[in-house]
Each structure stands twice: as C-alpha cells, then as structure tokens.
Write a structure and sequence with these properties.
Layout lengths: L1 H47 L28 H6 L10 E4 L2 E12 L2 E9 L13 H12 L9 E6 L9 E2 L4 E2 L13 E4 L6
Parallel strand pairs: 2-5
Antiparallel strand pairs: 1-2, 2-3, 3-7, 4-6, 4-7
Helix pairs in contact: 1-3
Length: 201
C-alpha cells in the first residue's frame, strides 16, 4: 500500500510540475509575441523613416486626420505593417490555451505629451476585464520589461479603460486611462496592458 501511495505521489508531482512548465512556456511566448511588435515598429522606422501608423510623420502613431500616399488606404499601424512585406510579421492576436489576446497600437497623452503605445487586451474592443488566470501573462511581460510586476509604474501599465479610434480596430486614441498609483498590483479590474515602448512613461 505504501508503494502505491509513493507512486501516486510521484505522478501527482510530475503532473503539477508539467503544468508549471506549460504555464511558464506560455508566459514566455506571450512576452516574445508582444516584444515582436515593438521590434517590428523599430524595423519599420528603419525602413521608412517613421513608425507604421504615423501618417503625418510627427512621431506619433494614429493621431493623424488624413492618410498619406502609401499602399494602404487607411494608414493604420497594422495595415502598414501588413503591406511592408516583412518576412514573418507577428499576428495581431495570440491564443495561449483557452486564452486569447489582441494587440493594438496608437498613442496616449500623459501630462500633455503624446506617447506611442502598444496595447494588449483580452477582447477586440478592449472592454473585457482580465480573469485571475490571465494576469500571470501581464505580470511576466511587466517583469521582463520593467524588472518588476508593478502595474502602476514604469513603461508597462495596467489600464482600466481604453478608447479605440473610430472605425479602426487596431489603433488607440488618447483617452486611455492608466493606473498611476505605485505600487499597484495587476488585477481583475484592468482591461488592458499599455506599453510605452519608445519613450519613458
């Protein structure tokens, strides 16, 4: 009987360890996916002299009121990246187990200064709050970027509200509301991760 119990204990331990390894691998995949979008924007800047989605060439993604003469008609960041003929561009969504996340780009205005952001949401409309099991992905990205999982400090912030540009599914306008208290834990009231990728927050 004791041998059976030992074997059962070993099997349970192996299953739990396996689950930890799966979760860790998914968190790393999430971090790499988000970082790919940052790299893609810097590569686009290298090629074109501006960020994708910066149609008026003022350094800010998505604040223009008109388009420029490029191959895309809408000049959204994702449209321009899709038309840039990158060999393996990242996808705008990622699925990790039963979770799915959506990437958006645009700008947020902080103390009167517009800053470019990459935004990751649970829903395409950026209105659905995170589940407790999903927060590990955001904490992993925050730690990898800022060195600590603090949703209210550094270049990675948690947002409780996001406003998308009218008629566009992939740009964010200045009405994002981010957590400013420090320290602040990631929680189930947040609807988005906001990453100030090109200028310090």
């Amino acid at each position: 009987m004791s041998i059976v119990l030992v074997i059962i204990g070993i099997l349970i331990g192996a299953v739990l360890k396996g689950q930890d390894l799966i979760n860790s691998a998914r968190a790393k995949k999430f971090v790499n996916w988000a970082k790919q979008w940052e790299i893609t924007q810097w590569t686009y800047l290298d090629r074109k002299g501006r960020f994708a989605g910066d149609a008026n060439i003022n350094g800010i993604i998505g604040d223009q009121t008109s388009t420029i003469d490029e191959t895309s008609s809408s000049n959204t960041a994702l449209d321009e990246i899709a038309n840039a003929n990158f060999i393996n561009p990242p996808t705008a969504t990622i699925t990790l187990g039963s979770f799915r996340f959506f990437m958006k780009m645009g700008f947020n205005t902080v103390s009167g200064t517009s800053k470019n952001v990459i935004v990751i949401c649970k829903s395409d409309a950026c209105t659905t709050a995170f589940a407790a099991d999903e927060i590990v992905y955001f904490e992993s990205f925050d730690t990898a970027t800022d060195g600590t999982a603090d949703a209210g400090a550094g270049n990675v912030r948690a947002a409780t509200a996001i406003t998308l540009a009218a008629g566009s599914g992939n740009e964010v306008v200045a009405a994002t509301t981010d957590v400013t208290a420090s320290p602040a834990a990631w929680g189930t009231t947040h609807v988005a991760l906001v990453y100030y990728f090109d200028r310090p927050r």
